[in-house]
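A.,

Following up on our hallway conversation. Structure tokens first:
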């Protein structure tokens, strides 16, 4: 299957992608993770990305386009879940053209709907494992006791000023992607509030409408 998971920052795209990945044998292509990996490598490109990401801005379309397309090409254009891409109408247009060119259209665009007040509460309590990228919520999903607390860190872009900027950027640049897909029969809105497993079940149910939910589709 070829899936896009879409939604505002803190909607649970990463958490839900990881569950779908395990359940359906897909590979998660998370552009935020790819960007953070580039920053960790300390490359020139990584240094440029760092400024954008820490301020809560989007990195330039052309830079993320090649990263996302290379990742999808490495997977032979199949069995992936795109998490955090596309985030602008330009990226969506490129993605559709790129997949059409490789005869690999998306099966579904899953749009997680979460009210803004929940988002702020989620993001300010989110912590990430510095090595594995696993995410936790201090109240609802705290890191297990055997994890080294020094490795549990707050993402620089989860600080209050950056959260505000990310939400502004989302409204301005990413919400139009919803319009782009809204009338497309592959586009489905799913409530992202409630227990993680409950949201996971909703997503599986929706995916069942598009293709048999198994590892080979
Ligand atoms: P995420 O981990 O998905 O929340 O992404 C973290 C940050 O990476 C975002 O706030 C952006 O700065 C950057 N980023 C991730 N995906 C994209 C994208 N598709 N286009 C532009 N910037 C992105």
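Then the amino acids I'd put at each of the 217 positions:
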């Amino acid at each position: 299957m070829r899936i896009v998971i879409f939604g505002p920052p803190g909607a649970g795209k990463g958490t839900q992608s990881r569950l779908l990945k395990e359940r359906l044998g897909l590979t998660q292509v998370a552009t935020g993770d790819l960007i953070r990996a580039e920053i960790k490598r300390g490359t020139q490109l990584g240094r440029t990305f760092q400024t954008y990401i820490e301020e809560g801005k989007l990195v330039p379309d052309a830079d993320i386009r090649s990263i996302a397309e290379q990742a999808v090409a490495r997977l032979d254009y199949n069995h992936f879940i795109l998490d955090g891409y596309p985030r602008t109408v330009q990226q969506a247009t490129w993605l559709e053209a790129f997949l059409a060119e490789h005869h690999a259209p998306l099966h579904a665009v899953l749009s997680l709907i979460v009210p803004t007040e929940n988002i702020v509460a989620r993001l300010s309590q989110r912590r990430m494992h510095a090595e594995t990228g696993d995410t936790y919520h201090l109240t609802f999903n705290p890191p297990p006791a055997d994890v080294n607390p020094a490795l549990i860190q707050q993402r620089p872009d989860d600080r209050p000023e950056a959260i505000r900027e990310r939400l502004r950027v989302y409204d301005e640049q990413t919400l139009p992607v919803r319009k782009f897909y809204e009338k497309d029969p592959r586009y489905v809105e799913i409530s992202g509030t409630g227990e993680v497993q409950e949201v996971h079940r909703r997503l599986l149910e929706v995916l069942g409408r598009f293709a048999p939910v198994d590892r080979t589709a």
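The first helix runs from residue 13 to 24. Curious whether your intuition agrees with the design.

B.
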